[in-house]
Specification:
Elements lengths: L2 H15 L30 H16 L3 E5 L17 E7 L7 E8 L2 E10 L4 E6 L11 H16 L3 E7 L2 E6 L2 E5 L8 H9 L6 E4 L5
Antiparallel strand pairs: 1-2, 2-3, 3-4, 4-5, 6-7, 6-9, 7-8
C-alpha cells in the first residue's frame, strides 16, 4: 500500500467534505481553563469536522478500490458492544481483501447536535477503537488538529493491519496501533501489556482479539 498516495487522497477528499467544517486552534494554548468551561460546550457543531474527516477517508478508500461502503440500515446491530453514546447513523467499509477486517464509522450527537461525535470501530461485529471527542466540554477542547490526528492514526492502523484490540472482559482492554498502545483497567500482574499484545498478534491470546491484515 502506498501510504503517501492514500494520505494524499484523504486530504484531497477533505478539501470538499470539510469545506463547511473549518478547523480551529487550541483555545487554551495561551490561556488557562476557566471553571465554567467544564460544564458547557458553546459550539458543539464545530465537531462536525470529525464526520467530514470520516467521509474523506471513506471516499479515499473506496476511490482507490480498497473497500466498498455499506451504509447501515440498523446502526445498533453493528456492534459487539454498543457505544455508550449511542449511534444514530453508521457506515461499514468492507475491504476488498478477504482477510482484512472492516472499518466502521458511527455518528452520534453532542448536546443533541447530530453528527458531532464520531465512533471509530473495526471488526464484524464492530469493536470500538475510539470515540471522539473524548469529552465535548470547552475545558477539554485543545483544537481540531489533535482530533483529526487521532482519527487518522486509528483509521491508518486498521487499513495497514497494524492494530490489535484485546478485550479481557470487565472493561479490561488494550488497543495497540503499531508500536503504540493504550490500556484500560489492565492488570499487568496478570499479563504485561507488551506480552499480551505479542500473544494476540501471534494468535495465542486467551482473550477476545480483533486484528486483521493490511487492506492491500
Amino acid at each position: 500500500m502506498d501510504r503517501i498516495e492514500l494520505r494524499r487522497a484523504v486530504e484531497e477528499a477533505f478539501t470538499v467534505t470539510g469545506a463547511d467544517t473549518p478547523p480551529w486552534p487550541d483555545p487554551h494554548a495561551d490561556a488557562e481553563v476557566r471553571d465554567e468551561e467544564y460544564s458547557r460546550c458553546l459550539r458543539p457543531e464545530k465537531y462536525r469536522i470529525l464526520a467530514a474527516r470520516a467521509e474523506a477517508w471513506t471516499q479515499a478508500l473506496c476511490g482507490l478500490g480498497l473497500a466498498a461502503a455499506e451504509p447501515a440500515a440498523d446502526p445498533a446491530a453493528l456492534w459487539r458492544r454498543a457505544p455508550e453514546a449511542g449511534v444514530g447513523s453508521a457506515v461499514r467499509l468492507r475491504p476488498v481483501r478477504a482477510d482484512a477486517v472492516p472499518l466502521v464509522f458511527g455518528l452520534s450527537a453532542i448536546d443533541e447536535v447530530p453528527r458531532t461525535l464520531l465512533v471509530v470501530a473495526a471488526g464484524e461485529p464492530a469493536t470500538t477503537l475510539g470515540v471522539l471527542p473524548d469529552c465535548g466540554c470547552d475545558a477539554c477542547d485543545d483544537g481540531s488538529a489533535n482530533l483529526l490526528e487521532v482519527v487518522d492514526e486509528l483509521v491508518a492502523a486498521v487499513v495497514t493491519g497494524t492494530f490489535v484490540h484485546i478485550d479481557a472482559g470487565g472493561g479490561s482492554e488494550i488497543l495497540a496501533t503499531g508500536d503504540d498502545w493504550s490500556a484500560s483497567d489492565w492488570d499487568d500482574a496478570r499479563t504485561p501489556v507488551e506480552e499480551a499484545v505479542a500473544a494476540a498478534r501471534a494468535g495465542r491470546s486467551p482473550y477476545h482479539v480483533v486484528l486483521g491484515q493490511a487492506w492491500s
